[in-house]
Amino acid sequence: MAALFLAGCGVRSSVVEETVVPERREIVVGFSQLGAESDWRSANSESMRSTFTAENGYKLLFEDGQQKQSNQITAIRTFIQREVDYIVLAPVTETGWDTVLQEAKDAGIPVVIVDRMVDVEDEDLFTCWVGSNFELEGRKAAAWLKRFTELQDIPPEDLHIVDIQGNLGASAQIGRTKGLERAVEENGWDLVAAVPADFTQAKGREVTALLLEEHEEINVIYCENDNEALGALEAIEAAGRKAGANLKEGEILIISFDGVRKEALQYALEGKISCIAECNPLHGPRVRAILETLEAGKVPDKLSYVTEGIYSGDASITQISVDGVNYPVTILTDSFIS
Ligand code: GYE
pLDDT per residue over 224-267, tens digit each? Predict the structure, then answer.
């Protein structure tokens, strides 16, 4: 009897003590990704996908805009119709978003901009932005080139540079082009041409091949991302020229951005690409932190810049400086890449 009584008590008390955890509501996020043009972009998509999982309490609606703003606008309208909790937008270009962002605002859906920026009349059309300082990236790369050529005793007027740009109107293009143009002005370098290649390897190769045919004097190719740099490298080699930092021997020096694709870092280690300004694509956790801030009823910072470095396989420059701020150069080694 006593045992039965005790057992009964045990059962009853365990029922009473069991705390009922209310199930956390699933948060629906509509993400309009601009496309799949580069390794940076693939890493960025993967970061978003692996962050906004069911396990983490999210349902992610992922739409690939295939490089077209009209597709991205359609995606945002679909998200509004589906009454998602948040819209995340990685915009292909800066302008042309006012109308659709107003629609999202009218529907009461917060919009977080990621990676590239939007240029809108009313800043209240988006909640906040997280991404890179693209002009600073450009200025860091140019500072490295200035320092390097000074150490090599190459007069500024002997630098004949071409800018292989990203898709025109994208923040990454605008900032990186500006960063170079500013250094060209300041240093008296020769900017031979600036041509868009949409951040792709195929276009990078095509554009570089034509430029090399037209301008024999080119000795620096400033590629606005790694995929273009890989294309430029192919074009240089196909033209029977050599990529490298020995300008006095007729080599062509390549500068690049991102540092995401292993192959590009490997080429930087080997000296085929001389310097890469890092651009970090892992925005998933950063966007998640923003959404958590909003879920908690708090206000996130309007603009958040990611801290980034600069890479080179050449050990002669360990630090560069922009506007009096010093940035260490990561000298690449095998272990860094593998
Ligand atoms: O550098 C490039 C990509 O917007 C930062 O877009 C991004 C850029 C990145 O295609 O590889």
Answer: 999 999 999 999 999 999 999 999 999 999 999 999 999 999 99
Tell which CATH architecture fits domain 27-131+281-305. Answer: 3-Layer(aba) Sandwich (3.40)
Regarding the beta carbon of 225 and ligand 1, being less than 6 Å apart is answered yes
pTM summary value = 0.93
Give me the phi and psi of 221, to 5 degrees please: -115, 115
Cα 223 to middle of ligand 1, angstroms: 11
How many helices (H) and strands (E) the chain has is answered by: 11, 14
CATH architecture of 134-279+310-337: 3-Layer(aba) Sandwich (3.40)
- 172 CB under 6 A from ligand 1? yes
Confidence of residue 36 (pLDDT cuts 50, 70, 90): very high
Residue 257 Cβ inside 6 Å of ligand 1? The answer reads yes
